[in-house]
Amino acid sequence: MIISTSRFGQVELKQEDVLTFPEGLLGFGDLRKFALLDDPNDEIFAWLQSCEAPQIAFPVLEPELFAPQYKATLTKSDMEALKLAAQEKARYFSIVTIPDDPTQMTANLKAPVVVNVEARTARQCVLQDNNLAIREPIFTKLQQRVVQNPAVAIKNQSSGIDVATKLNIVKEAGL
Amino acid sequence: MLVLTRKLGESIAIDDHIKIRVVQIKGKQVRLGIEAPKDTKIHREEVYVAIQEQNQQSASVPADKTRSVAKLLKP
After folding, report:
1. Residue A161: what pLDDT?
2. How many domains is chain B built from?
3. ipTM
4. Helices (DSSP H) in A48-138: which residue ranges?
5. In CA terms, which of A67, A169, B5, B47 is 20 to 30 Å from A41?
């Protein structure tokens, strides 16, 4: 299938690339189908792209890249909504906000997007842990990551990028 | 919306397992005590509003912006 995106033009997807969000994302409750895209021209981020609204896409990062101690505790209802048998089987992605000054960019640790890879179901889970920030500054932490391992692109240092679909552009957006 | 009046120390029961008690009333502030099963999520509404705002702002980032961040990160 081919979906339209405002950032990448026409993108070709397989049926199994589509993630279903039974409840949508907070503030985007009407959108239920997304794909996680791996843009080869981007060394850091993957994109959670809506299959239904071309202009809606979120840059995401795995929290382990900037918060190695990150631990999410899912509730029973989270697990049921995700059709998840064991919490260890879930993959986590933080939605990132990049303001005009990218050094001020932040990631949402409080409400990660949790993916059940096998069932292709996902949910933005609001975690009960009050120590997790909705806007965690991450620029310096990512910079440290680059310094430690300058030869490898950041996203290749994470374990879950294989969940994402390599961006297969059919027709570039009118740039 | 169901609206109930409660005095200090009185409670409201929701379902069989959730109890909300008025613990303190001070000026314009009310302190509530909530008893609920461990698995129940309890958040101030502001948390959801802040997450919605964060999502909205995140969705407005163009692709070339994220691509350029890698260069900035290199010291």
Report:
1. 74
2. 1
3. 0.91
4. 76-82
5. A67
